[in-house]
Write a structure and sequence with these properties.
The protein is mainly alpha-helical. The chain is 60% helix and 5% strand.
Length: 463
């Protein structure tokens, strides 16, 4: 069985084999671009009429038919099987069926090369806006949790070892800040995505007097890609977008990892609602943080998409090559996976509560305020490196004698330094120690409040 490639059959003596057509067909993936393809085609045909390349009546018939085809695809009435090869051919073939030979005029002054480049940019523009909205929702949930839990202290960690006391709010706001840079990256990426390639045709432009700027304006692009070869031959905007998705997923994975750790019995810092956890098929006592684990696991898919698109593009000579058909799978998968992961993480956090009692317990019987002793000594004239060494010896003494810092007598402190006075004990209480922080952006109460006010304003203004 063979099929006639009707859109370019004049050059060929033999039709494309079924095996080749099946192998090269991309419609299973690119049918997702049908709305973008039709929007671009309508803008293009209206420009052709405005430039008097086709008549107004021809443009009207084509536009009406295209809107009808859009409804047919949306309702599932139009066959989009593999024989159609790609969404562009499927729509054009259906257009010719509906309006006859005049439908063949739609492709005047353009190529599938600039057509697909346009479709992907339209799709990506919408995806960026949606992902920005979802990330902002996640930030708002984190901000709400930070406000609600203001005043709750927790042990801060480095190397997964308890380090210094911090506000839980401060910890949560760190993620708000991280995610905000992701929003900035998406906004910056949007600037480069929002340029129209249409009018580049196959790669050298066209001899028809088209108006590229008019089409770009109609489709709400910020401008056009000036060089026609560049317009059809690069996918760096996809690389950039998927790289941003990879960074978003990396941040979500870190958040997910903490939820997994913190929901364990060993930590018991957070309790996730039953609706966002699962049980075991054999162990009836289990309550597993599967949504967080899945987010953590899906990071690999997005990283894989980034390597996929980079590898596809790395050795391609200018201009368009059919290899670039393979750009859709990593693009679509990165969009879907990142969007769903941000969405589910938002809901997991909404339905999670922090165990303030456990945080309070973990502030005791440890050396979280050891840094305060070192700072105290510095403030009393001891060079920092000497103060650090003295404090280290104090901690070692406590470990050896199974004591806490606050349980040491002043006499024991004097064994290490006579510069330590009675006022040291005020710094050893975690709740009082953080009040002595002075640097901007620190975990000091006034600084955390300032951050909450700042992010409240930022997120309120964002659409």
């Amino acid at each position: 069985m063979s099929h006639t490639p009707s859109l370019w059959g004049g050059r060929f003596k033999a039709p494309l084999s079924e095996a080749a057509l099946r192998f090269s067909s991309s419609i299973d993936l690119d049918k997702a671009l049908y709305q973008e393809d039709i929007a671009g085609s309508i803008a293009h045909v209206e420009m052709l009429a405005a430039q008097r390349i086709i008549t107004s009546e021809e443009a009207r018939r084509i536009r009406t038919a295209l809107k009808g085809i859009e409804r047919e695809i949306a309702s599932g009435k139009l066959d989009l099987s593999w024989e159609k090869e790609d969404i562009h051919m499927a729509i054009e073939q259906r257009l010719i069926q509906k309006v006859g030979a005049v439908g063949g005029k739609l492709h005047t002054g353009r190529s599938r090369n600039d057509q697909v480049a346009l479709d992907e940019r339209l799709f990506l523009r919408t995806a960026i806006q949606e992902l920005r909205r979802l990330i902002t929702q996640l930030q708002r949930v984190l901000l709400y949790k930070a406000e609600k839990n203001f005043g709750t202290l927790m042990p801060g960690y480095t190397h997964l070892q308890r380090a210094q006391p911090v506000y839980l709010s401060h910890h949560l706001l760190a993620y708000v800040s991280m995610l905000d840079r992701d929003v900035e990256r998406l906004t910056d990426c949007h600037e480069r995505v929002n340029r129209s390639p249409l009018g580049a045709a196959a790669m050298a432009g066209t001899s028809f007097p088209i108006d590229r700027a008019a089409v770009a304006k109609k489709l709400r692009f910020g401008g056009v890609i000036e060089n026609s070869i560049d317009a059809v031959s690069d996918r760096d905007h996809l690389v950039e977008f998927i790289a941003v998705c990879s960074t978003v997923m990396m941040h979500l994975s870190r958040m997910a990892e903490e939820l997994v750790l913190w929901s364990s019995q060993e930590f018991d810092f957070v309790r996730i609602d039953d609706a966002y956890t699962t049980g075991s098929s054999i162990m009836p006592q289990k309550k597993n943080p599967d949504m967080a684990e899945l987010v953590r696991g899906k990071v690999g898919r997005v990283y894989g998409s980034l390597m996929n698109i980079l590898t596809t593009m790395k050795g391609l000579p200018l201009a368009y090559n059919r290899d670039m058909q393979e750009d859709k799978q990593p693009l679509f998968d990165a969009v879907t996976t990142t969007r769903e992961s941000v969405f589910i993480m938002t809901h997991v956090l909404v339905h999670s509560t922090f165990n303030t009692q456990r945080f309070e317990e973990e502030l005791k019987n440890d050396f979280l305020t050891a840094t305060e002793i070192a700072d105290y000594l510095v403030q009393h004239g001891v060079p920092f490196r000497d103060a650090h060494a003295v404090t280290g010896r104090i901690v070692a003494y406590c470990v050896e004698h199974r004591k806490t810092l606050s349980s040491l007598t002043l006499r024991e402190f004097h064994h290490f330094s006579h510069r330590i006075a009675e006022d040291i004990y005020g710094l050893l209480d975690p709740h009082r120690s953080i009040e002595h922080k002075r640097s901007s952006g620190s975990t000091a109460p006034q600084e955390v409040k300032r951050q909450i006010v700042h992010w409240t304003k930022v997120l309120k203004q964002r659409k």
